Amino acid sequence: MKIWTERPAKTEVEAVVRRYFSLLRAGRIPEAAQLIDHYSVPHVLTSLWTGSVGTSAEGDEANGSAAAAAWERDLSWLGELDLADFHWGHTGSHVNVEITYRAQMIEVALGFWVKPTAAGWVLTGPATYW
């Protein structure tokens, strides 16, 4: 996990978010999750899948269908996601990032927080916002 000794600048945080997202797009999920103080990976992937591809993965999972399992095994769809705009909160400790799928804005945004810990400053998240 990236730890800063001082509160990081917005550009530093954005660089870590970009690195996180590039690892995610490449299907390197464990590496991406280790870069930040990460929330539930399955929740993030399910939200991105549902928001981008337009298939209700949660409904498929409830039915135990093969379609639900397929998107989890074949993560190639992640390569079609891109980061769009970064929107910082007024305190500078929270950033929401818009996501595109095939160059179209999707309904899901990712939220990250810069938080102090005993070891230093860390980036936590992502939360998913609809």
Explain what the structure shows.
The chain is of the alpha+beta class. The protein has 5 helices and 6 strands; from the N terminus they run E-H-H-E-H-H-H-E-E-E-E. Strands 1, 2, 3, 4, 5 and 6 form a 6-stranded mixed beta sheet that branches. A hairpin with a 4-residue loop joins strand 5 and strand 6. The longest helix has 16 residues. The chain is globular, with a radius of gyration of 15 Å.
Highlighted features:
single chain, 130 residues, alpha+beta, six-stranded mixed sheet, 5 helices, 6 strands, 32% strand
What is the overall number of helices?
5
- Average predicted confidence as pLDDT: 89
The span between the termini is 27 Å
Biggest sheet statistics: 6 strands, mixed
Record the SSE blueprint.
Blueprint: E1 3-4, H1 10-25, H2 29-35, E2 37-38, H3 41-53, H4 57-63, H5 66-73, E3 81-88, E4 94-101, E5 104-116, E6 121-129
Parallel strand pairs: 2-6
Antiparallel strand pairs: 1-6, 3-4, 4-5, 5-6
Helix pairs in contact: 1-2, 4-5
Task: Give a nutshell description of this structure.
With 130 residues, this protein is α+β, with helices and mostly antiparallel strands.
